[in-house]
UniProtKB/TrEMBL annotation, chains A, B, C, D:
Highest classification ranks of the organism: Bacteria, Pseudomonadati, Pseudomonadota, Alphaproteobacteria, Rhodobacterales
InterPro entries for the chain: L-rhamnose_isomerase, L_rhamnose_iso, Xyl_isomerase-like_sf, Xyl_isomerase-like_TIM-brl
Record has Cell division as a keyword: no
NCBIfam families with a match to the protein in the record: L_rham_iso_rhiz (TIGR02629)
Keywords: Isomerase, Manganese, Metal-binding
Molecular function per GO: isomerase activity; metal ion binding
Domain Xylose isomerase-like TIM barrel: 92-286
Protein name: L-rhamnose isomerase / sugar isomerase
Amino acid sequence: MIDRSIISAQNDALHDDLARDYTALGDKLSRRGVDIDAIKDRARRFSVAVPSWGTGTGGTRFARFPGNGEPATIFDKLDDCGVIHGLTRATPRVSLHIPWDKADPSDLRAKAEEHGLGFDAMNSNTFQDQPGQVHSYKFGSLSHTAPATRAQAIEHNLECLEIGQKIGSKALTVWIGDGANFPGQSHMGRQYERYLSSMKEIYAGLPDDWRLFSEHKIYEPAFYSTVVQDWGTSLMTAQELGPKAMCLVDLGHHAPNVNIEMIVSRLIHAGKLGGFHFNDSKYGDDDLDSGTIEPYRLFLIWNELVDAEDTPGLDLAHMIDQSHNVTDPIESLMVSAMEIQRASVQAALVDRAALAGYQDENDALMASATLRAAFRTDVEPILAMARLEAGGAVDPVATYRASGYRAKVAESRPKVSGAGGGIV
Amino acid sequence: MIDRSIISAQNDALHDDLARDYTALGDKLSRRGVDIDAIKDRARRFSVAVPSWGTGTGGTRFARFPGNGEPATIFDKLDDCGVIHGLTRATPRVSLHIPWDKADPSDLRAKAEEHGLGFDAMNSNTFQDQPGQVHSYKFGSLSHTAPATRAQAIEHNLECLEIGQKIGSKALTVWIGDGANFPGQSHMGRQYERYLSSMKEIYAGLPDDWRLFSEHKIYEPAFYSTVVQDWGTSLMTAQELGPKAMCLVDLGHHAPNVNIEMIVSRLIHAGKLGGFHFNDSKYGDDDLDSGTIEPYRLFLIWNELVDAEDTPGLDLAHMIDQSHNVTDPIESLMVSAMEIQRASVQAALVDRAALAGYQDENDALMASATLRAAFRTDVEPILAMARLEAGGAVDPVATYRASGYRAKVAESRPKVSGAGGGIV
Amino acid sequence: MIDRSIISAQNDALHDDLARDYTALGDKLSRRGVDIDAIKDRARRFSVAVPSWGTGTGGTRFARFPGNGEPATIFDKLDDCGVIHGLTRATPRVSLHIPWDKADPSDLRAKAEEHGLGFDAMNSNTFQDQPGQVHSYKFGSLSHTAPATRAQAIEHNLECLEIGQKIGSKALTVWIGDGANFPGQSHMGRQYERYLSSMKEIYAGLPDDWRLFSEHKIYEPAFYSTVVQDWGTSLMTAQELGPKAMCLVDLGHHAPNVNIEMIVSRLIHAGKLGGFHFNDSKYGDDDLDSGTIEPYRLFLIWNELVDAEDTPGLDLAHMIDQSHNVTDPIESLMVSAMEIQRASVQAALVDRAALAGYQDENDALMASATLRAAFRTDVEPILAMARLEAGGAVDPVATYRASGYRAKVAESRPKVSGAGGGIV
Amino acid sequence: MIDRSIISAQNDALHDDLARDYTALGDKLSRRGVDIDAIKDRARRFSVAVPSWGTGTGGTRFARFPGNGEPATIFDKLDDCGVIHGLTRATPRVSLHIPWDKADPSDLRAKAEEHGLGFDAMNSNTFQDQPGQVHSYKFGSLSHTAPATRAQAIEHNLECLEIGQKIGSKALTVWIGDGANFPGQSHMGRQYERYLSSMKEIYAGLPDDWRLFSEHKIYEPAFYSTVVQDWGTSLMTAQELGPKAMCLVDLGHHAPNVNIEMIVSRLIHAGKLGGFHFNDSKYGDDDLDSGTIEPYRLFLIWNELVDAEDTPGLDLAHMIDQSHNVTDPIESLMVSAMEIQRASVQAALVDRAALAGYQDENDALMASATLRAAFRTDVEPILAMARLEAGGAVDPVATYRASGYRAKVAESRPKVSGAGGGIV
């Protein structure tokens, strides 16, 4: 963990400038009729879950280039998550991936509590074969043609529910790699029916206070078709399963040019929006750091969420899902959490009464300008002040670097060497 | 109309070669256990509707370059449709567009009967302002913020129902240009609710034996968002409206890379596939001639349709929707109808028992090869024989050119000069 | 023209708040080692040309919905451009389109001088047929198979050079719609050779102090292939023509997902970047207002331009090219010019020494953060102060609205009614 | 190796039907003025190189699912390549990848000769770290900021030249993963200059009768920008390097919707087309089996190649580059080679005189129909007869399966278990 004294020393050095910037911004916002402290409180209430697997260096099918001090166990990963939350105060929950993170539940809870962390949605894995696994997922899992393979995949998901209950999770996210690489390889209709049938068995095992998230993706690892290819199929699935089944939107899982904020709006209309996997992308499921490629898109999504936040029953699970290939994962997760938080705060600055007026009058220019005015407000002083008051760091990356954390854990964690990806 | 003697002369010259090719193909197919005559009968039963507007030269926002003998009235257009059906025997119905095709219903019926034609789905138009129109559709129609504008658009659709009933149509296709060019211009949720509410009023006026087709499109003429942007929204709309509301798929209305045959399969699962607007595209809604850009994609869509053709309740409306900018529209519509027919016949040649076996065994290579074997069968002799036996032309384009039809109508139809498109 | 007193009244009301915000921002920037006045001077030096045709309401192939007070002549358009420049002080040049803007050159110059305007690049038009034109461009212009059609298109471009010389322009932009709608329609190699040959004739007529801009576009109005489809072909063309031939980049003319800032960097390397057509887009050549869809992309392009601004020989022509379908074109052009200016100023705030250091050390996270820190700086006070000091409006849109300009010109300009686009 | 007697037995059973189909097709083609035997000879002369790495099961970043009898060494791979060529007679050369295929050159040559195989282009690998490698390629190789890393990557490429010379290769293909995951991570201009400088050093070491292939790719493994992102950059690189540097086109390395056959035409114009990496794709660099997703696109590319085949100096290197994730790689490579061969033969059937006439007259409909008529000719009897006469199998997949080859090698090759990809 980062020593409190390091955080304080860093914060102290930045405090005066922050206070000045906060005051200037507060003055500006008050002229717009906005109370900066109320916005700051909103920033403090913001949280997004961190994926355990995101703490390790990611890779591509071509290669993986690990860094120093890679976490070797889920307990190492929880330590890293503790650092992330400690400095940003924005990531109080961790999302586990089974079987990668399998461990004694009481040990998991103890380690999490040590860092003030809780557990978010469970993630099952039926897109890889594990050592000793009886049936291969090479040709699918929940939608496989063989009943025994489907049963094995269902069983694995039920086990995730079991583990999750022991650690306080309340949701299961199901993402499968099932699909086809060739036209004709799978009968699309029957494949989907098998998938639905398997999902119904999982749903049947879902505790009453849990939710089941269906996650769509247009392609990869299957390159001709995927079983849950878009939000339409995800919606249809959630409708057939029942009220506890909801749709989860990963920002990188769409066709080029697709208007994601519109999908968000439609799923809200359908009463089926369950949550997000945040990341950014330029081409496909690039899994880049949130807010680094198209920050305005992230803002527009939050614009829909803030607009709808009083919708009865809307209860969203926000998670990060990224692959950190060329950065220190702790740094990327901290920055990403803060970029998502930034977008949520900017969206809260939208003058909604004015916007509604412009929309009613079809004043497209001023409506658009109203959104941009909120977006271009530099809310960094608000985010920093919220962190400071919550016990975090004004500048989490600088503080993290000053702490020498990575070098320290590198001493005890096993060294990992570079490796090829999945291609050969 | 094309003189019978011209058709016969052309057919006679081609007959012997056709007979030889038909026999050779029949021999080959019989070795695969396929009866060529049964396939030929299927080809004869095939039909696709022709859009009245497709008989005129189309254009882009930059320009339109009309040809000689452009049809000036709906009656000219029906004459052209008569030629198309006369030569191909594959297009027995015409789809009208209101108000472009407004005329005395009994005159319409008389002219259609003269050519042995019937009427397919009606198409309403609320994406343009007509002379004398009270409320502009500049900012939307069925989803407009102003109740009076919505009422006008609803009224127009109800009028389409009325006209359609008088000429024997059984369906209304609703495609709107409503959307937004700027983030913020429209409140996406409320805009969709207004659209739904309008559609419900139209649905309420729908005769019992009619169907209402909801057509989605990702963009154009709106360039940031459209109200019915994809099949997910179209499905949700059809679900909310009721059993007579179905989804219509235009092949050019999707995001890049989207797997359209999969959408077809999903809509069949949902019991909501209503029909198609056929065309081809490389970039956006290019409205190119069917089968000229990605013929295998067209085949894969038909593969799904043939596979599901015994599904209870599946009753599809097949229509062409293209823009013929650089060809004689009559020629393009004939060729397009035959390309769609070709794909349907090739799909009927798929060895479905073998395919199902390969799918069950996850023999992806042979499953894929099974589809390709059907696709690469040159079924031209089957199509030509079906046309010949039905009284059409073995080679419709050559026969049409030999007839001098276009030059003849150019004498009586008013000359139209080139014009700019919508940009200035 | 907008009365000076209206501008002053509006500015006076905003002055104190602006001064306060400018001071607060100056304080913040000085802590980063940035002199706000130097940045303000840069903002004042910024300029972008306005397209004459952009002052009229644009449309799509489906429809065009004109507004009140549409400019009827090039002189009306120059009046509108005068308003735009008068309020923003950022658009001192107008780009003409021939034959749309053909008029007596001395009248053009007189009207422009009245508004303190000059003329930017000339634009030729061989994508439409004009009344009385001998050869049609339906099947191409500079690359047409018929020598006479090519000669006519060349002649038109030479005429543009002639007109341009009389009004003080120094560049010709050539964009053609030539291409094909069907595979096979054109022989791609020979079509390009014909294009090159025509361009060489135009180049031969280019005055010594002029430049010829080659503009690429992936599709539309041709939907299978276009002759100058991408920057690779544009570069090859400019290389074959000679040193006065340069490449022009329109932001909406690329395939989905393409990294435009990288093309900018490559063309700078090649010594062939000539200028830009600014606009924004989500799907295709949407021609939306600059900076309204992906503002960070606009910033990243300017990041390349600011980085390379000391490159010997780099002399860029910046123009807006948009279609204003749902807004008052004057408002859209003002806002767009300011958004482009904003991006240029934000890019000037990038700490390039720090960035270079992070790049050398492969500190991807901090390099990326360095760009974002500049981007999220709200430079509105700088832009507004620059306008104020240059005699423009602090808030151009509000001032324009207060002036009642549109209503006034609507009294004298002919009323235009809505019309269909190019489809039928 | 597959026993001759197995091939003969399979061929004998198919011979009579093949002869009948060949005769019928010959009859049909002769009516078009085409000599089937001349086309068959062309089919026999066709060849495409096989990638050594393609004989192993591929994977994605999520997982790899190996099959039975995976090749463990380059000698196993050459055995598999021998089977592929033995049955198809279309793949007489193998392309090696260094360091994966490093071995004693004389052993390599001996094994290749055993199978009647030669060696095609060498492939270097600077996108992965190898055990013991001094400098990591995590942040680039030939364009790395550190001179020592670049020197190491250059040295590796020079070693590839050395190995290649010993085994009779005549070309080096350079594909690098260098790029960036974040805006700002790399200075795009300087990064490209470093790349060019490294390439010049490699080029300096190129033997006189060798060629250097530059291969572009829009993204992956870098997800924001890649150094050689498109054919424009590849062309510029080849121009700067010199006459032995050529551009290589991988069909899956482009932005969505890009017209690849047009790039082929442009590179032919520039005198810089060097060769291909064949595969098929629907979304990104999917590396699917050639001809299985968009067979008409493959045909259109071959249409350009056949059209230009008499261009002086045009000498193309055809290679397959695919990832076989769900099929037996030997089967996929056989089928892919035959699909590429099929497209080349179909393209040879295009009536070029008629096509040129239609193009000159702008008869788009008939020009397009001329291409489709060639494409839909089922040339399978030609391909099969060419194989038969060359000593191959009429039906390579059936013969391969009948031979039991995979089961046999599985007995001696080490078993490999499933594994995760690069993500964790």
